[in-house]
Amino acid sequence: MPNVEEGEALNRPFLDLNAVARGLGPPPWQTCLVGTPGLRVVLFYWPAGFATVPHVHPEAEEIFQVVRGRAVFTIGNAPEREVGPGEFVFAKRGARHSITVVADEPLTLLTAVAPNEDRPDETIEPASVTCLGAKMGSALAGAGSRCHH
Predict the structure, then answer these.
(1) How far apart are CA 35 and CA 3, in angstroms?
(2) Measured distance CA(39)–CA(120) in Å, rounded
(3) pTM of this prediction?
């Protein structure tokens, strides 16, 4: 079963991420940009000090692109690594991973998970979710309330 149904994400060919972020306000929030059977893309905005619980996606791979801010990533058995804007991170299928926002500024993080499905053996942290439609009006309505990283 898909984590994000197509009608719950923006699924637009072009998006201005800065405009999306401005419309959603201060952290924490997340919004689903893409939700198809094969892919989900989520934009996160987390405050300084926020941390995910370590978790796995047994049947999915995940990529991370830091847009703004800095975070420490733990991926599988690799040493922890602090990453910043322009850096790319990859978690293979089944790799336990976690993210901690560092420094005094929030983190803006773009993630993609493929395929877009939840499984009973998948563990994902609870998250605060904001629907774009509620804050940005009907022009961006339809952003999902069930999107997870």
Answers:
(1) 8
(2) 18
(3) 0.79
Tokens representing 130 are 């904001």
Task: Quick: pLDDT tens for 81-98.
Answer: 999 999 999 999 989 999
Q: In this structure, what token pair is assigned to residue 90?
A: 């990859």
- In one-letter notation, the amino acid at residue 54 is P
* Predicted local confidence at residue 113, as pLDDT: 92
Two tokens at 88?
Answer: 């790319």
Which run of H or E residues covers position 33?
A: strand 29-36
Residues 16, 70: Cα–Cα separation, whole Å = 21
Domains delineated in the chain: 6-140 (2.60.120.10)
Q: How would you class 139 by CB atoms within 10 Å of its CB: exposed for 0-12, middle for 13-18, buried for 19 or more?
A: exposed
Say yes or no to pLDDT of 53 above 80. yes
Query: 26 or 137, which is more confident?
Result: 26
